[in-house]
Structures are given as structure tokens and as C-alpha cells.
Amino acid sequence: MVQVLRSILSRLARFVLSLRYRVHLHGREVLPTLKGPVLLLPNHPAYVDPVLFLITFYPALQPRIVFSEENFPQAIVGPLTKLLNGIAIPARGRQSQEARSENGPRVAVEGVDQGEGTESGPGSRRKIVLFTTEPISLQDANRLLAEAGFHGIMRIDEVHPLDQIPLLGNGKADYKRLRSLVQETLSPAG
After folding, report:
1. Which has the higher per-residue pLDDT, 170 or 104?
2. CA distance 91 to 93
3. What is the pTM of this model?
4. pLDDT (tens digit, 9 = 90+) per residue, 46-93?
């Protein structure tokens, strides 16, 4: 059934696009002799190029489309992806929670100035906090820093365990959020 729908869609698209575009394929006789995976790439980015490639090469190769979810609405692409056996590349920033927790950072370090005001200088000291999803004590964290050659350069003041390091849409640690967590601990309880 799916193969019949694919064939109908291919012929319909070929007819509709033939009203506007003329595609000449040189070397059509080589297509059946291709062995192994083949990557077909348009020579410049345009929304119509992938469609023209697909309808031109579909009868001989039945290629799978690869597309970015950022560029096309899911309501349109979702059904076509299933019908054409396509491969969706997730949009940046919309990585699944499962992937973020598996592949995301396990530690992040943030520091804020504490003491008189927020400026560095006499009477103020920088508080360094280790945020981690791994169980580690303050003593072990500082011992590991010293063993790595950071003795006298950096000392962790506090270990803050988290279930997950907060991330930005691009998958990097959200240091503004981490800084606000540190500042919450510095604020006088009221």
C-alpha cells in the first residue's frame, strides 16, 4: 500500500513540477549500475532542489530524503517523512530530554563574587561552586583539582548536586541559571 502511495505521489509531483520546470538527466543509463549507498546533493540550496532531485531519481533509486526539522513544519513533513521513508534531523535546541541527560554535561563550575557588593577587590571573595550529576564530596573534588595541577589556582567552595545540569537550547550549560542558583544561596534568608 505504501509503495502504491509513493508511486502515485511521485507521478503527481512529476506532473505538477513539469508545468514549471524542465529537468534533463544526463547519464541515466549509469543509475542502475550504482552499487552501495549513494549520496545525492543539489548544487545550491533551494527549497525546490530536493523535490526536483527526488522526483528525478525516485524511479531508478528510490532515495530517502534527509531534512532538518527546523526548515519545514512538522504537519507537512511528518506524513511525507513516513510515506517517503525519510530521515529527520532534529532541530537544534529541541533535543530530547533523554538525549540531553545521556549526552549532556555531568559537571559545571560557576563562580560569583561575594562579600562587599558584587565587585572583586579587598573584602570580597569569589565563591566557586561545582554543579554535578555525579556523587562527589567537597574534599574529593578539591583533591582531584590538586592532583590535576590546580592546587593553589582553584578551590571549590561548595558542591551542589543536581539531577541534570541546566542547558541552553544549543545543548551547552546554562551559566546564567547556574549563577542564579549560586546567588540564591548567597542571599540572606528572609
Report:
1. 170
2. 6
3. 0.42
4. 778 877 888 888 777 878 877 777 766 667 667 777 777 777 776 665
Query: Using H for helix, E for strand and C for coil, what is the string for the chain?
Result: CHHHHHHHHHHHHHHHHHCCCCCCCCCHHHHHHCCCCCCCCCCCCCCHHHHHHHHHHHHHHCCCCEEECCCCCHHHHHHHHHHHCCEEECCCCCCCHHHHHHHCCCEEEEEEEEECCCCCCCCEEEEEEEEECCCCCHHHHHHHHHHHHHCCCCCCCEEEECCCCCECCCCCECHHHHHHHHHHHHCCCC
- If you search the block for the grid coordinates 532542489, which residue do you land on? 49
pLDDT at 7: 80
Torsion 123-174-185-162 (CA) sign: negative
pLDDT at 172 over 70: yes
Going along the chain from its start, the domains and CATH numbers come out as 2-89 (no CATH), 99-186 (3.30.300.30)
